[in-house]
Structure formats: C-alpha cells, structure tokens
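Workshop exercise sheet. Pairs work together: one partner reads the sequence aloud, the other fills in the structure field after running the prediction. Swap roles for the next sheet.
Pair: D.N. / O.F.
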Amino acid sequence: MPFDIQIIGGGLAGSEAAWQLAEAGFRIRLSEMRGGGDTTPAHETDRLAEMVCSNSFRSDDAEHNAVGLLHQEMRALGSLIMRAADKHRVPAGSALAVDREAFAAEVTRSIESHPNITIVRERVDTLPDHPALIATGPLTGSKLAEAIAAETGQDSLAFFDAIAPIVHRDSIDMDVAWMAARWDKGGKDYVNCPLDRDQYEAFVQALRDGEKTEFKEWEKDTPYFEGCMPIEVMAERGVDTLRYGPMKGVGLDNPRTGRWPYAVVQLRQDNALGTLWNMVGFQTKLKHGEQVRIFRTIPGLENAEFARLGGIHRNSFINSPRLLDGELRLKSKPNIRFAGQITGCEGYVESAAVGLLAARFAIAELKDDRLAPPPAETALGALLGHITGGADADTYQPMNVNFGLMPPPDTRLRKADRKKAYTDRARTALAEWLESSRVVEPA
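Structure field:
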C-alpha cells in the first residue's frame, strides 16, 4: 500500500501519531518489529501501546497537577491514548490507572481497523529518506540506534528503567492489610500493608543485602532516572529514604490501630477484574528469587503469588535540545521527526503527548502549511519547549511534565493558589491556540 509517511515504532507515541495523521486523511505505514520475529527485553506481547512498567498515567487532577492538565489538553486534541485510557480505567484514587491488557487491545483494534493505516511487522535498521517519524522508544533496536548515532555524530545517552512486580489479589492477607487512599482522597483504592519500625528496618537491610542483577561492562556507568529509581537503590541512600518516599505512612489511618503505620507498602489495581495489583514504587533490579523471598517479609504479603516479577532494562534517548528543531525534526535530516521517550520525555502520557505533537507538525507540513507550537503556558507547549531547547543540552536528562517547565505567573501568589493559577492560565492559552492556529481537528 502506498503511504504518505512512515511511523517506526508502535508504542504509545507511535500509535498516537499514527492515529492523528490517519484521522487527518494521510496514509500511514506503521512499522513495528514486535510480531515480526523480534522483541525487546521488557515487552511481553506484540500489542501496540503495551505498558511495560506501571499501569498508571498518574494524577488526573487537571486543576492542581501538571500531568492531569496534560491529560485534559490531549483529550481536547482527540487523543486515541487518552480515549482508550478513559475507557479502561480502574480505581486508583485521583490517579488515572488502566487495565493494561484491555488498554493495549483497545489501541491495537483502533489502529488495525483504521482504513488509512497499514501495520507492517518489520524491523527498521536504517534512517529513511522519505517522510518518517521515529517513535521506537527507550528500547530502540541496536542497528537503528547505531544509524541514529552515525547520522547525528552524538554518543548515545542512556539510563536504566526498572519494572515493579504484580501480585495476585487473592494471595494478599487482608486480615493484615486494608483498603484506603492517602488522606482518603478518591476512595479506598489502594491495598496498604503496614510495617512497624523493626519490620521496616529489617526490610531495608534485606534490600541492601539482596542479590542484584549484574550489569554488562558497557552498562555500569549508565545513570538511573530519578523518577523510576529501583527500590534497593533508594534503600542504599539511607535507612529513612523509603519511609519518606514510596513507603511513607503519612495520611493512612490503619483501622486496626487508629494510627499511621511507621511505613507502608501500597498496591494499586492493575486490571479491570481487580485480580492483579502492582506494588507502587517498587521497581527493582533484585534477582527474581530474591524478590520473592524479600517481598514475602512484608506484612500481608507472606503468601503473595506474583503474576510478574520486577525487572530492569536499558533505556536510550537522544540529546533532543541539540539535535531536534522546534517541530521535532532532526536538524541534519529534516524528513525525519522523533517522538516519545526516545526524545527524552519520561512517562506514558508525556510519550503519547510528544507523539501527538509530532503528528500535528507533520500534518501541517504534508499540507504545505505550518503549525505554530502550543504556547509555553500549556502543558503541551512546556513539554515541547523543554525537549527542543529549554533544557541544557550539556546536562540533558529525561523529564516528566511539571509546572517548573512553564513560565512563572506574572503576579505573586500564595503557595496554595499557585497550581490553580498555572492550570487556569494554561486552559486559556490552549483555547486561544486552538482558535488561532490552523490545527487539523480529528474527524
């Protein structure tokens, strides 16, 4: 089938980009290596938009949270990823979490059934000379990564990303654990396993002593991304690090004691049936046998059965502030755009958002037009600006969307009013951009 543009990579960014371009009437060749005889160290299926780490899109609060604001902006632009997430959401307090299998199946069905999209299960090893969008993610195949490095002349940047375990719900001892959300926000959506001081300190020591995955020589100097730090690496930073991080007991009243626990392990629903729950913040590089042994010392998880154990994989990204222009084109080869985590954004929703933006810029270019970038006051514009020049190229690292990427308000505000001021201003700016720009709206 003839095509107008090739999209390489069928993750969240590639799927979103394919949908946006196809809805605008362009013919898409979507190249995805999974299902064609290749896979990655982290993926388990050949479905499009498979979520390999958490099942959470994080906060859905568009009034006080930057990622919730990004959700809202993407919905306004007809995002396929957000539509599928909303359809298959599972209880998670004020967060947007999804049944990961149903979510990926929904995205795959939507892409497969679109008349303007042809999915080709193939590995691409070279940079195309025709219009293309590379969204191969942090697990880009080695030959394509080498081709990118050869074209750009830049050494590959990389970091490690870790995956949290998933537990069967019926193996959790609810005579010990209880259901609640922190500060009772959003409903009783989390399983909470309490630890007293002695249990916590023994657990931290076990994490420090547990046998870890060994790295290859070329991997040893690769830094971790701070937002996805393995649990045992945090434990090595100090005995109280976890208690003030993912294991904080603040705001969680144990109904059996009437008090906050010294520390707590939370689990969040991972599928619509409620049979699978993932351990929040428990990304790990412990060996599998050690995970089972150590995590079963957590009160309530003594007999835990694991549907998936944690793991670790190498993530790669390009130095986008140096290599890409303001429309996500490769400066040295502008027929190619980049999108998703390979650009150095971090997080599912950020990855899909950059795919959406890259597609919108490509739509305008294919129509011999030009799309003005979204304002820096919006979540979309702030994320784009950071990737394409707002960040220091010499120290560039992956980043989640946050209010710190946006221009500060013009007037001084009370701390309590600041987040709402950011989101109110962003909604006004997005509405004006949609009105004034020649944005191609979805059919």
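Discussion prompt: The two ends are 22 Å apart (CA to CA). What would you look at next?
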